[in-house]
Amino acid sequence: MFGYVRPSLPRLTEEDKGRFRAVYCGLCRTLGERYGLPARFILNYDLTFLAVLLWPPDTGEPEHRRCIAHPLAGRDTFTGNAVLELAADESVILSWWQIRDALADPGRGKARYRAAAAALKGAYEKAAALRPDFDRSTREQLERLGALEAAGCPTLDEPADTFARLLAGAAGEVDHPVKRRVLEQMLYHLGRWVYLIDAADDLAEDFASGSYNPLIRRFSLESGVLTEEAREGLVVSLDHSIRLMAAAFELWDFGAWSGVIRAVVYEGLFGVGRAVLEGTFHAGDGLWGGAGRKEEPL
């Protein structure tokens, strides 16, 4: 579900890079302060991008502070605010239901997901109490998605739409009605893209294990590899979602965050999609070239 949303580095100015790092570090800090050390392990670029989308145009200024990962040098970071708290709460809820969905999948290994569920259970219960509407909508959409997958849904649109609606719910607490509508559209089309690109990334594994994958059903695949016709059809669908996301983005002034968002929408998603389809994408690789426990900017 996560790990595919990242900006294209050539599109980012040094200021944009610093601002994105500061949000990443701020979300990490907020997750730890609100939910404890285990919650920091759910941090990734996708959730950082969610915080960027939720942020007001006036970014404010980050502070230079020490952190658990960089105790000597420290990092510039945005400190706790309402946006980071909302993003942290929704991140925990999204991650929890991702874990529960993985546990319900008969084709997946269970041990690491059981451990993750045990570590995150208390954080989830707190986040669900703080954001009950988002928790309810996330659970309902995943239940619908589970039913579609159990029935072997043969289309791309129904399961992708369900996951898209799930992610669009993250905009529900945005106060400004126009921005909320813009974000709902952006997150909807991002969610649809994420669901389909994840299906492409998992195709070989799902075929080998017999797990549901919408691409296998839609294109009647006889192996864990896309045919040329299936690949072309998938690319058309993926690119259409990105273009609709871009169209929604242009309807709102995101201020200082516009550069980061453009670097995701206009290049980053296309680049990740191409890497997944070529088999060269590695979710654990750091955005700035490193790889490790987290996708940590250097």
Task: Order the strands across the largest sheet as they lie in space.
Answer: 1-2
What is the total tally of β strands? Answer: 2
Q: Quaternary status of these chains?
A: single chain
Quickly count the helices.
Answer: 11
Question: What do these coordinates show?
Answer:
By secondary structure, the protein is mostly helical. Helices cover 63% and strands 2% of the residues. The protein is built from 11 helices and 2 strands. A two-stranded antiparallel ribbon has the order 1-2. α5 packs antiparallel against α6. The longest helix is centred in the middle third of the chain and has 25 residues, at 177-201. Residues 288-298 have low confidence and may be disordered.
Keywords:
298 residues, mainly alpha, Farnesyl Diphosphate Synthase, 11 helices, 63% helix
